[in-house]
UniProtKB/TrEMBL annotation:
GO terms for cellular component: plasma membrane. Residues 1-22 are annotated as: Disordered. Keywords: Adaptive immunity, Cell membrane, Disulfide bond, Glycoprotein, Immunity, Membrane, Signal. Residues 1-11 have a biased composition (Polar residues). InterPro entries: Ig-like_dom, Ig-like_dom_sf, Ig-like_fold, Ig_sub, Ig_V-set, TCR_complex_component. Pfam families: V-set (PF07686). It comes from the Eukaryota. This is T cell receptor alpha variable 26-2. The lineage of its organism: Eukaryota, Metazoa, Chordata, Craniata, Vertebrata.
Amino acid sequence: DAKTTQPNSMESNEEEPVHLPCNHSTISGADYIYWYRQRPSQGPEYVIHGLTSNVNNRIASLTIAEDRKSSTLILHHATLRDAAVYYCILRDHSGTDGTAAVQYLPGGEREGI
């Protein structure tokens, strides 16, 4: 069973990078690492995914450790619009998921989940 763990919350100042770590020590070779975010009163939104190499898109970057046991989602210039619960999910070809969540709150606010 693939499991992921993340810190309960992260914080930063606006326009600074935010690094959201995810540990997934039980990852298998077929597992993709997906990140989603959920803003207040909205449904989940896809952010990025990867298998073995680092990935970039207009929202974020995903860095994957060489052994694939951890990864980091990087929001390069975080703003208030990026305040959300971020989910790190391992998805394999059998359709089973292991999930964890971290809430990013800008400007020093802090909230556990």
